[in-house]
Design a protein that fits this description.
This protein is mainly α. It contains 15 helices and two strands. It has a two-stranded antiparallel sheet with strand order 1-2. β1 (252-258) and β2 (261-266) form a beta hairpin. α4 crosses α9, α5 (80-97) runs parallel beside α11 (191-203) and α11 crosses α12 (208-231). The longest helix is centred in the middle third of the chain and has 41 residues, at 117-157. It is globular.
Length: 316
């Protein structure tokens, strides 16, 4: 266990630019945007007259509707950029996780240390599944706190009560915990993709991005062509499976018009296989489904292949 934790710490320090600096930059951009918006409002809005009118109008909205508006903005708008960039960071981290050791010829040194190849593989997988989401989430929460303090100060300056108008209506702690649950659920849901990326990282002699994208793309196009020749229809193929997998993701990704009001949604609500409302139970429904069971089987095959290649690897 101590060796595994040491390996995870090594992954963090070797990739702290992506894992630490990237979310800090995103948080800084959020704060900069908030301050620039505030400065612009002060410059053009004489004595904040327009803003005072807008806040007064918001205070007249029924509490349930106001809570829905602020909660959705807080949960979806505040986390979307973090979610998007986290996906890119994890994708490219896993692509280089087993490739970079062979590329810089340091693999023999790492193999000489008292840590098994299985522990090395697990450390990289856990870094992508747990460490990266936790770091991004920590910066996201701090960013939300700072922007919330700025907004509360502005509301107080405009003569409204920030607690009743914003804070109590936004349920920030519930929103933050749902974002974290969404990211961790997605890490499990994405295990087949993570396993594939590690397999490619362990195998690719060069340019792992091409090896990661071209084989599934070529397979899907060939499958699509053969299905069309046989049936003259475009039935479900790899493109469709990946599209359905992405649409049913437990990530907070889109908004949906339900009950005559717009609410945030899990994945993309294009089918009714799962409930897309943002709740913990709906995230868990995906993780205990037959789809997830099949995904775990595929992930196990890919990870076993990556481990087999790692044990036989020396250098690129």
């Amino acid at each position: 266990m101590n060796r595994l934790l040491a390996l995870i710490q090594r992954e963090y320090w070797e990739n702290r630019g992506a894992l630490r600096t990237t979310p800090l930059v995103i948080g800084g951009l959020y704060l900069l945007g908030t301050l620039m918006s505030l400065a612009t409002a002060i410059y053009f809005d004489n004595e904040l007259f327009t803003m005072r009118e807008a806040l007064f109008g918001l205070s007249q909205v029924p509490e349930a509707s106001r809570s829905n508006i602020i909660y959705n903005i807080n949960l979806f708008g505040g986390s979307f950029l973090f979610t998007l960039v986290l996906g890119f960071v994890v994708f490219f981290y896993l692509l280089g996780a087993l490739f970079d050791d062979r590329k810089d010829r340091s693999i023999l040194f790492w193999k000489s240390l008292p840590a098994s190849d299985l522990q090395t593989l697990l450390s990289k997988l856990l870094t992508a599944m747990v460490v990266a989401p936790l770091i991004f989430w920590g910066v996201y929460v701090v960013t939300q706190l700072l922007t919330g303090l700025i907004a509360a100060g502005l509301v107080a300056y405009a003569g409204e009560n920030p607690w009743t108008l914003l804070i109590s209506a936004s349920s920030p702690i519930k929103a933050w915990l749902l974002v974290l649950a969404s990211w961790l659920s997605q890490a499990i849901w994405a295990l087949p993709i993570y396993g594939w990326l590690l397999l490619v990282s362990a195998y690719a002699p060069r340019i792992p991005l091409l090896f990661a994208l071209l084989p599934p793309l070529a397979f899907a196009v060939l499958q699509l062509w053969l299905d069309f020749l046989r049936t003259f229809t475009l039935q479900e193929n790899l493109f469709g499976l990946l599209g359905r997998w992405f649409a049913n993701s437990p990530l907070i990704l889109t908004a949906d018009d339900r009950n005559d009001r717009v609410e945030i949604a899990l994945g993309i609500p294009t089918n009714a296989q799962f409930d897309h409302s943002v709740t913990l139970s709906n995230m868990l429904d995906r993780l205990i489904s037959m789809d997830m069971l099949a995904g775990l089987g595929i992930a196990a095959i890919f990870l076993a292949g990556a481990l087999w290649l790692r044990r036989r690897a020396t250098e690129s």
